[in-house]
Design goal:
Layout lengths: L2 H25 L5 H10 L8 E4 L5 E4 L1 H20 L1 H11 L1 H20 L9 H19 L10 H14 L3 H10 L4 H10 L1 H10 L28 E3 L5 E3 L18 H6 L1 H22 L1 H8 L4 H15 L2 H12 L13 H28 L6 H26 L5 H16 L2 H9 L7 H11 L4 H22 L1
Antiparallel strand pairs: 1-2, 3-4
Helix pairs in contact: 1-6, 1-7, 2-8, 3-6, 3-18, 3-19, 4-5, 4-6, 4-18, 5-6, 5-9, 5-10, 7-15, 7-17, 12-16, 12-17, 12-18, 12-19, 12-20, 12-21, 13-14, 14-17, 15-17, 16-17, 16-20, 16-21
Length: 485
């Protein structure tokens, strides 16, 4: 191996490793909200909304329902922004490339950490823009890092899946902040450190990532990032015929290889595949968001307000989130189980991929129903199982979402369809706040009926795999008839 190849191999591995660290430690931190809420309550955020109330036996209790409602609203807005802005963020990335997109993401992420750092119980409303900025900046880290898979050829999907799993696991960041707070490290110090880590993000942007995009497939002698060697900075490659052609750094992540466009973007939107897939994602995402946003008040109710138990279960939930990076590749193995096997006569690769996706879609829906049933059961020790099912289902949900879109629709529409389905599902997820308000109001703090309703709603997710199964069976039958005629 030549010196330049060694240099590229080392830079490629360093790019992968630092990208994994970035996704694992920063990108999806907002989904560890339950751990941060515990700290914020200890520091008196929105404590003025707590009022004295008379209990059943005439005892005086502290009713903090309005405080919980504010925390739920913060998470609702942040999670909405995280998903809804995926569409414009995708267009930003496609148009301006990696460097501009990341600098924008770093800027707003750092603004978010600084706003949390300089917030206080008197300035609690700073949390509303701060958490939204953290969410949007984090998703930009993920979007710009997923293209790193293009550097690894046959392992491309595995890398992308790992990065998505790392994004899920990064919710444990707020657990670390909670543990540091219990050890005497202030919330301000923790978030100032996160702000200082922006130097790491900036260095990665200029030294370990391309100005535009990583190409796929990767051209020979491709280089990227700031290099001392003049020959490494060229923007063109010489083809076998001696003519110069532009490297695929001008090609976005989703434009892998030239493919015949089978459907227009409008046809994709109007297809039943897209409609049922949107429903499949939306109902399960709503269940997850409501669970995360209301975890702290649920634990308060099940533990009768015992702070040590709430802390114990909050830590357990956050620790299970670390397993997201381990769970994420399982769904990819299910989707790819048919790879390398011979296809039936006349069977297309897309047909085989769609049939393989049925099991993945079905298992994801089944996991969500089991998770919802456990979350609806007011038995405290059962929540350990709820946490396990939640992180497993969430890993399957988002990995399966991207995988199905790449299988079912032309690759030239992947970015637009992925951004659109995330944006529309974000609008649907806004229902979590009226659900929470219903529990706190008319249902007097008892979420049983809302949980039952969400469990029933989750059953709608089974329509999607059933629809794909019926489609594949119909195509197989039509092919068999055509062969015998």
């Amino acid at each position: 191996m030549s010196g330049s190849e060694n240099k590229f191999s080392g830079r490629r591995c360093l790019t992968f490793a630092t990208g994994l660290v970035e996704c694992l430690c920063f990108a999806g931190a907002v989904f560890g909200w339950a751990s941060l809420v515990f700290v914020l309550k200890e520091d008196g955020y929105f404590s003025s909304l707590c009022v004295n109330a008379t209990g059943v036996n005439g005892t005086q209790t502290l009713d903090c329902g309005a405080q919980d409602e504010q925390f739920s609203l913060i998470f609702t807005i942040a999670s909405f922004m995280n998903n809804f802005l995926t569409l414009p963020n995708g267009f930003l990335f496609d148009h301006f490339g990696t460097t501009v997109t990341r600098l924008f993401g770093i800027c707003i992420y750092t603004m978010g950490t600084l706003m949390v750092a300089f917030s206080s119980s008197a300035l609690a409303y700073m949390l509303f823009p701060a958490l939204s900025l953290l969410a949007v900046g984090g998703i930009l880290f993920l979007i710009t890092n997923m293209q790193v898979g293009n550097l690894f050829g046959s392992h491309r999907s595995t890398i992308i899946t790992l990065y998505n799993g790392a994004f899920d696991s990064s919710s444990a960041l707020f657990l670390i902040i909670k543990l540091l707070r219990e050890s005497g490290v202030s919330l301000r110090a923790s978030f100032l450190f996160l702000s200082a880590c922006s130097v790491f993000h900036v260095l990665r942007t200029f030294f370990l990532l391309p100005r535009k995009f990583f190409p796929y497939p990767l051209p020979d002698r491709y280089t990227y990032g700031i290099s001392c060697s003049k020959s490494d900075t060229g923007s063109t490659e010489v083809a076998a015929n001696g003519h110069a052609h532009t490297t695929a750094e001008e090609t976005p992540l989703t434009k892998d290889v030239p493919m015949k466009q089978e459907k227009s973007f409008r046809e994709c939107l109007m297809s039943r595949f897209f409609v049922w897939h949107l429903l499949w994602l939306s109902v399960m995402q709503l269940r997850h968001y409501l669970f995360i946003g209301t975890l702290n008040p649920m634990l308060q109710r099940l533990t009768a307000g015992e702070s040590s138990l709430v802390s114990q279960y909050t830590n357990a939930f956050a620790i299970t989130q670390l397993c997201g990076v381990l769970c994420a590749p399982w769904n990819g193995l299910i989707m790819d189980r048919h790879k390398g096997k011979p296809r039936a006569a006349g069977e297309t690769e897309q047909e085989v991929d769609l049939r393989a996706s049925v099991l993945s879609l079905f298992l994801t829906a089944l996991q969500c129903v089991l998770f919802s049933v456990c979350a609806s059961t007011p038995y405290l020790p059962l929540q350990y199982l709820t946490f396990v099912l939640q992180v497993l289902n969430r890993s399957f949900l988002y990995g399966g979402n991207a995988a199905f879109i790449s299988v079912a629709f032309p690759s030239c529409h992947f970015g637009k369809l992925y951004g659109l389905v995330m944006a529309l599902s974000a609008v649907f997820s806004l229902l979590q706040y009226p659900c929470f308000a219903l529990v706190k109001g008319a249902l007097d703090g008892d979420p049983l009926y809302v949980n039952i309703g969400l469990t029933v709603l989750s059953l709608l997710a089974f329509i999607h795999p059933l629809s794909i199964y019926l489609h594949c069976r119909s195509v197989t039958s039509q092919r068999a008839i055509a062969e015998t005629s």
